[in-house]
Design a protein that fits this description.
InterPro entries: Carboh/pur_kinase_PfkB_CS, PfkB_dom, Ribo/fructo_kinase, Ribokinase-like. By secondary structure, this protein is of the alpha/beta class. Helices cover about 35% and strands about 30% of the residues. The chain has ten helices and 14 strands. The strands form two sheets. Strands 5-4-1-8-9-10-11-12-13-14 form a ten-stranded mixed sheet, with helices on both faces. The protein has a four-stranded mixed sheet with strand order 3-2-6-7. α1 crosses α9 and α9 runs antiparallel to α10. The protein starts with a strand and ends with a strand.
């Protein structure tokens, strides 16, 4: 059995400069990387690096860039039989002008987004999976179709993002594990979630709606992992941050890998946070997780009782 990731595939152009130019000016690029990218691809590559059999469902362009990123995913150990080719390949430009500060420019053509028909075409791939990871930034109709298909075939559903408002109730019913970053948590709560207490309250409401585990990012604090009879706060890593791009994708990959190993929720949160920390130490969103593929990861976890 495999994990199937359903989400964006694209080409990443990462540029690091000494500073941003004024209008009409220019600046020197001191480092440049061109990578396989997109949230779905990043999660899939991270899972492969962690030793998890993984397949990817997404769209690349019917162009040279599409062929290149598909071939790179295959070299990374990802099953690309569910990758669809049409239109233009999505392009993401990540501009880093100082450690930890970035600007992201996205060209995501309509043709690069998944449709319900794409999901139906890949049903056999989903049916052969024990877990399906959904990137909720894809169109609502497509992610809902994927969630229904996964549930019908008995796969656990991991969702990354904010469930679409027009289908939120049904979507939450299909989700086993929900991860939301700080911006997505604010959308779910209707206000910024800036403390562990606020995150626990939001997670409690989400657990009542369907998921069995919820992981929420809290700005400048860390990640809170909540399950029906407990919670654990995983503090932020003290390691230097070069580029935050892809940290959430690495977190999801680590969370899935740990849960598939049989880790308890607190242990899974610890591996997920370690994966995110490993990602932000490098330029670009491509994960660097092979060093975390062993049975355990050290880190700071504060367990508690659900409130």
């Amino acid at each position: 059995m495999t994990v199937t990731v359903v989400g964006q595939i694209g080409r990443d152009l990462v540029l690091r400069s000494a500073g941003l130019p004024a209008a009409g000016g220019s600046t020197r690029v001191v480092q440049r990387r061109e990578l396989l990218g997109g949230k779905g691809a990043n999660q899939a590559v991270g899972l492969a690096q962690l030793g998890v059999p993984v397949a990817l469902i997404g769209v690349v362009g019917d162009d040279d860039a599409g062929a290149a990123v598909r071939e790179q995913a295959a070299r990374d150990g990802v099953d690309v039989s569910g990758v669809i080719e049409r239109g233009e390949t999505a392009l993401l430009v990540d501009l880093v002008d100082e450690p930890g500060s970035r600007r992201l420019f996205e060209h995501i053509p309509e043709s690069s987004l998944l449709t319900p028909a794409d999901v139906q075409r890949c049903e056999a791939r989903i049916a052969g999976s024990d877990m399906v990871s959904l990137q909720l930034q894809q169109p609502a109709e497509a992610v809902l179709a994927a969630a229904r298909t996964a549930r019908r075939h008995g796969a656990q559903v991991v969702a990354d993002g904010n469930p679409p408002a027009e289908a939120r109730d049904e979507m939450l019913c299909h989700i086993d594990v929900l991860r939301a970053d700080a911006d997505e948590a604010a959308l779910l709560a209707g206000e910024p979630v800036t403390s562990p207490a606020a995150a626990r309250a939001l997670a409690g409401r989400l657990l009542e709606a369907g998921p069995r585990l919820v992981a929420l990012a809290i700005p400048d604090v860390g990640d809170l992992v909540v399950w029906p009879d407990g919670h654990a706060m995983v503090g932020l890593s003290k390691a230097p941050v070069l580029d935050r791009t892809g940290a959430g994708d690495a977190f999801v990959a680590g969370l899935i890998a740990a849960l598939r190993r049989g880790a308890d929720p607190a242990q899974a949160g610890r591996l997920a946070a370690a994966a995110a920390a490993a990602c932000v130490a490098h330029l670009g969103g491509r994960p660097h997780l092979a060093g975390l593929a062993g049975p355990g990861v050290s880190g700071s976890v504060s367990p508690g009782t659900a409130q």
